[in-house]
Design a protein that fits this description.
Elements lengths: L4 H10 L12 E10 L7 E10 L4 H18 L1 H11 L10 E6 L2 E6 L25 E2 L8 H4 L7 H9 L4 E4 L3 H13 L9 E3 L9 H5 L8 E5 L3 H5 L5 E4 L5 E2 L2 E2 L4 E2 L12 E4 L9 H12 L4 H29 L21 H11 L11 H9 L2 H38 L7 H12 L1
Parallel strand pairs: 4-5, 6-8, 6-9, 7-8, 12-13
Antiparallel strand pairs: 1-2, 3-4, 9-13, 10-11
Helix pairs in contact: 2-3, 9-10, 13-14
Length: 445
């Protein structure tokens, strides 16, 4: 139940940036089955069930496929008809609301996050308030991945990868399986929250995709995109890309999974190239060695993967917020003063974003106030200004501020109209305080 035009605006207004419906793309969630079968020419039978949606509800939709697919492969179309009938009765995905979703004798219980949720706090855990029998299948999150599992081979490079995502650098993830490819790409694009990753990304890209020629041509620079692939053939066709993360099968090196090493792109020649992060990128920020120490401490204490993921998620959140707070403060200073907004003329425009003016504010109000990591923050901002992520962030903030300006202007007009009506009627001012404010609220809506 996601295509309800009347509810589209409400969802877009209330959902966090990272959970907005994709306007230009669909997400395809896949359950793949492969069974040995001597009667088939290739020696095995293979089939996929694909769930298609504009919503990035990774956990929820993968859970649905785990329930539906085995039954579907056994009973085929009648099973899908029954499932679609049940899903058709589900409530709308309202941000901030706990949902009970009945499916095939199970009730899935999950909460859709809201834009007003406190960042970094643990979401309310669904509880069986309605005494559902059997007990519901409770999902702790509708979309969050196990970041610790996704980043296990690159824990020593997560800060560098965060910079690559922030700057929307072209990146290829060559993984041993579609599952690892997809989860790694989704984990990378999610690490900027609450900043929305504004570029394209393909969790699982193949040589059969329509953009294959466009992405492999050497006549133009690679696009701002993250590609997840599994075919080693891409090592040859994408050698001109600036950053290639080659992942292998996970191996342990003591307590910590074996970490991939930084390697020069020139060494990426053969199809059997070793795992590594092939890039010549130099980070703007100094490496935070404390993160790895905290993760290692968690491993020694046998802390759960969920707890380790929460630690990683908070690290990314604090890093992104330290980067964003100066931008938000400066952007707010571009808003006209409320006293300059009068009912008798158009409101003054929002001042333009002056990059050099913003950079001068960093000396006294920069990331150093909230982040212990040192480095070339100014250089990082300069590169960020050239990225699609800055353009997307600025456009969204400017749109919100323009709307706020319109609301304030309407309130000023309403106050003036209320005042004229009051004087004409000769009513006492005290009687008008409450009704005038209510009138203004109605007009502003």
């Amino acid at each position: 139940g996601e295509d309800h035009p009347g509810e589209e605006t409400d969802y877009g207004r209330d959902a966090p940036p990272g959970l907005q419906r994709e306007a230009a793309h669909y997400f395809g969630y896949v359950y793949f089955r492969q069974v040995k079968d001597p009667s088939v020419k290739r020696g095995y039978f293979q089939k996929s069930l694909v769930l298609v949606s504009r919503l990035p509800y990774v956990n929820l939709f993968q859970c649905l496929l785990q329930l539906i697919a085995p039954e579907y492969f056994d009973k085929l179309d009648p099973c899908l008809e029954a499932v679609c009938s049940e899903i058709d009765q589900w409530p709308l995905p309202v941000p901030g609301r706990m949902l009970n979703l009945p499916l095939m004798g199970v009730v899935i219980q999950v909460r859709v996050p809201s834009r007003v949720d406190k960042l970094g706090s643990s979401p309310d855990k669904p509880v069986n308030q309605e005494n559902l029998l059997p007990a519901p299948l409770v999902l702790s999150s509708v979309y969050e991945l196990d970041l610790f599992r996704c980043f296990q081979p690159v824990l020593t490079h997560v800060q560098l990868l965060w910079e690559l995502m922030l700057l929307a650098e072209p990146l290829v993830v060559l993984a041993p399986s579609p599952a690892v490819s997809s989860e790694t790409v989704l984990a990378l694009t999610s690490c900027l929250a609450p900043l929305k990753y504004c570029c394209d990304y393909r969790p699982y890209f193949t040589i059969h995709d329509s953009e294959f020629k466009e992405y492999t041509t050497r006549t133009q620079a690679p696009p701002n995109i993250v590609l997840g692939v599994t075919n080693p053939f891409f090592i040859k066709t994408l050698q001109h890309w600036p950053h290639i993360l080659r992942l292998g099968e996970l191996k342990m090196a003591g307590d910590l999974p074996k970490q991939v090493k930084m390697k020069k792109l020139a060494k990426l020649r053969s199809l059997d190239a070793k795992p590594g992060l092939y890039s010549s990128y130099k980070t703007f920020l100094h490496k935070d060695k404390g993160l790895l120490k905290r993760l290692l401490k968690g491993i020694h204490k046998k802390r759960s993967s969920e707890a380790q993921s929460a630690l990683l998620r908070r690290y990314f959140l604090e890093l992104t917020q330290s980067f964003l707070i100066p931008l938000e403060h400066y952007m707010a200073s571009l808003m006209p003063l409320q006293k300059a907004i009068t009912p008798w003329k158009n409101p003054p425009p929002i001042r333009p974003f002056q990059q050099e003016e913003f950079l001068r504010t960093l000396e006294h109000a920069g990331p150093q106030l909230t982040c212990v990591i040192k480095g070339d923050w100014i250089g990082l901002y300069r590169r960020f200004f050239r990225s699609p992520n800055f353009d997307g962030w600025y456009r969204q903030r400017h749109k919100e501020m323009t709307h706020k300006l319109e609301v304030l202007h309407l309130e000023a007009i309403s106050e003036a109209v209320c005042g004229e009506g009051r004087e004409a009627a000769g009513w006492h001012p005290a009687c008008w305080v409450s009704s005038a404010k209510q009138g203004c609220r109605r007009v502003s809506l």
